[in-house]
Structures are given as structure tokens and as C-alpha cells.
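thought: fold this chain, then report.
action: predict
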Amino acid sequence: MTSMSRGIDNPSTIRLTFVGDICLAGGLQADLLERGPGFPFVHVRGALEAADLVVGNLECCIVEQHRGLEPQNNRLIVPEHLASGLSKSGITVVSLANNHILDGGEEGLVSTQRFLEEQGILYFGAGANIKDAESPLLVPCKGRVIAFLGACDVPNVHAKASRSGVAPFDGARLRRRISECKEQSDIIVVSIHADLEFTAYPSPKRVRLSRWLADLGAHLVVQHHPHVCQGIEEFSSSIIAYSLGNFVFRVTGNEYLESKTGTEWGLILEVDVSTSGTRPQLSYRVCPVTITAQNQTILSEGRDRDTQLQVVAEVSAALANWNVLRRHRMARCLAEARSTAYMLYYLGCRNGMSAMLFAAVEILKSPYERRWIYSLLTLGVLG
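observation:
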């Protein structure tokens, strides 16, 4: 365990600040090489300084050697010398439980962990085997212990008994992990990487699971992966943030993200935890950030800020309405179905019927893909 001494000057209040996806790869390497490794964080560092801990999702793999500026096969890999800005970013803790932490293979995970240790940044959610991946990060802070747990719903990166990877988003396993953390800590934070990308509303199933985790004892459930901001709610004396969007990411010039609505902004979530009572009392604030056309993160201002806060307020209000969540889930799954059908059609035209059928079978074999198919078949209720 590592003791932290920064933050607000109040021994009975711990400030935890959360940010969204942090990716220094995906084409951002060229900007880092030209403008320096610290440039993405220059304008937001001040907003993080009052926190005792600043927590983000590290959506890339850090390796020793330079492997080229452009991503290959959607691998998000960045060399150490271009990732050195993390040490002065204000970020103190990162989750590694995501679908890109193994983009550099098992060696890449080891090099990422080693680099973070050298920079003094704590991490959780991935390891050399499933035991390591599921082990909590326990951080003493102002006389209390904060436990961080990570989980990801992408099966092909899950750790096994003798294989590196990330902790799975599995209800039974998370129940056990939270139960164990109750014996070791005062505050429990669960970081989840899950659901379909680019959807403005969480799936009904993820809302149910998140509330269940709060009932089990998680004080904070903070989520990533959609690359857009979703709602925030207080439930069972806990706070659930369904997606904080992007924090540092190359959006401009990234065809995968640039064409999607809402990927150019995210949220800083500040949570004050009062530890003076028998149970921690939580309050929160949000601060929108915008990723500029130069791929630099700034604090949102003016009309942009007002619009972004309104989006979060509308989605947060919808969390209480299952019909709204179901309709949005159904619409998102229909879009996924259309995209998949087009892909299979053009694959068949280009490579023949056998290639198309093989791809279709692979889609059906994937638990990740089957979720939205199941959701579609149940009219947005399940999956």
C-alpha cells in the first residue's frame, strides 16, 4: 500500500477525482513527438490539484521501444518517452481493466506496469494471472483505506489462471471481491469498462448491475468504454457514473472517433467523501472538458460547457425511466445490426459466401457480440 499526502486540507474529507479515457496512442504519438509529452494535460492539470487521488482509465499500452507513429491493426501502443507526460499530469491512479491494455501482448502489460511504477502512478485491474488482475489496489489516505477494483466485459482480454489479462466483469466474482474489500478498506471504488461504444445511454442491464454493486457495498461505481458521456446518479448512498467519456484522446484526425457525436468532450468527476460518520457520505460535482481540434484537453467554457452539462442532466434524469433506456438500447442495437449486416454483405461480395459465413459464425461465437444480439431479440430489455 502507498500513502498519499496531497489534496484538500481537511482530515475528515477525502477528495477523489475521476477522469475518462486516457489514450496516448491512436495517432496522438505524432502530436506528442512534435509538441512534447506533456501537452495534452497543460490546461487541465490545475483542475486536478485539489484532489487527494486522481483516477483515470489508461486506454493504451506503454512499451520501451518506438514502434511507429501510426497504430497498426487498431493497436493502441505508445513508447515510454512519449508517455512521460503522465508523471506531471496530476493523475495518480489508473485502471488497466480495458480492452487495449494487452495490445502489446503480455510483455506490453509488464512494461506498462513497470513504467507506471517508475512514474509513481498506482494501477489496478490487470495482472499476470486472474488472481493478480482481481486483487484490489489498497491506498491509505488520511487515516482511511480506499480499495480500487477493476473489471472489463471484453472476453478475449480476460486473465486466466496462467495467462495475463484483465479482471472480468462477472457478477459472482465481483460480489466476492467487494465482500473481501469490506474487510480490508473503508471506501470501495469499482471501475468498469463495459457496454457498446458511442451510445449516450447505458443499457438497462448495466444500470441494474451497477445498482446491484452499490447495494453490495461499492461506494463508487465509475465506468468507461462508450467514449461519450452518460448519466450520473446517487443510489443506495453511492454514486454511479456510467461513462466519463474521453479525457485525453486523439479525436481530430481519428476517423473512428471523429465521425461520432460527443467523442470530443468528457467529464471530470469530483467526489468529496466525508469520513466523520459511521458510513462515508459522498457528494459530487462535474466539470466538462473539451478536446480541441489540436487534440489538447481544456476546461469547457461558455456555450460548450452549458450544452455539455445539459446533456449529462438529461441522460441522468432518464436513468429513472426504464422505457427511455430500453428505447435507446433498442435503437443502438439496431444500428449495430445494420453495421454488421453491411459488413457481412460487402465481405461476401468481395471474398465470397464462405468468407461471409465464417465471419458471421465468429460474430455469433463472441460473447461480446452476442450481448447486443440478445438485447435486440428482447427489444432492449436484456443483454
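thought: worth noting. Residues 322-351 form the longest helix (30 residues).
final: C-alpha cells above.
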